[in-house]
């Protein structure tokens, strides 16, 4: 009898161990390697408040990646002519670096490269200081911006084949990566409408997919020299016409073919804000690591979390780790986001229904 009880106990113990092992494996499969947050870097006056937010809100939700859109909001030493008039000092940046290190958050700075060199009627710092880099100098900035317009102007781009452009932008990239003590850099590269313009003396008439892929490779290869990783937005690698995704979330100028021309170690940030489109599967099956990026729609963000969980759970062993997780995006300045996040004013709708980035952030990290 004792032997029988011992055998039953042993078998039960084996079953418990097997179940525990399966649960541990399942948790490992569905847990996200990247639990991210992307926002504009704070201005100097807002650094301390942002540090508090990182410590109390990001860390408590186990956010482990912080993408900071810096652009020209830093007191660059190599190219001071490209600084914003009010910009972060090295001491300000070190406060951000320190709080991230203390809370095991990987910090990744972003400077928009290639596209987004202007916005509405404003030319940004690079093309203002170096107008010779402009891909479309014949397109003049309007006094009053409207869309659509006769020039098809959304945002200006720099010419990727200008012989001097990379000497300037890579100086910025190196300096910002050094001060942020980071092993990764986000180059933006979304919504590039101006590329291979017919009037450009260097790249007019060239294949736009090859031009886009060439710029991705050039940036990636430069970062690789210091063992740094390239992150980009993924929209230019999707076919907007065939998929019906449109010209914003995907490409209408044939850059989508670049997906087969760029290195597989580039991290793709796949953004969709109004529908939980399943394009992460496309990137993963092409061999890329990918994160899905919601913005301000809580139900869509929650659906994207659920999708990413399913992708990781159901994927083949060969592609599972390509599904890296979620990055909540915020497309305002940090101060505006913090005002909304900490506001005591009640929204007219519930947090699940109200379309704000802070409600989406709360919703997805509750999941």
Automatic annotation (TrEMBL):
Belongs to the glycosyl hydrolase 20 family. Its EC number is 3.2.1.52. Residues 86-294 form the Glycoside hydrolase family 20 catalytic domain. It catalyses: Hydrolysis of terminal non-reducing N-acetyl-D-hexosamine residues in N-acetyl-beta-D-hexosaminides. This is beta-N-acetylhexosaminidase. It is an enzyme of class 3 (hydrolase). SUPFAM superfamilies: (Trans)glycosidases. It comes from the Bacteria. Residues 1-24 form the signal peptide. The keyword Hydrolase applies. InterPro entries: Beta_hexosaminidase_sua/sub, GH, Glyco_hydro_20_cat. Keywords: Hydrolase, Signal.
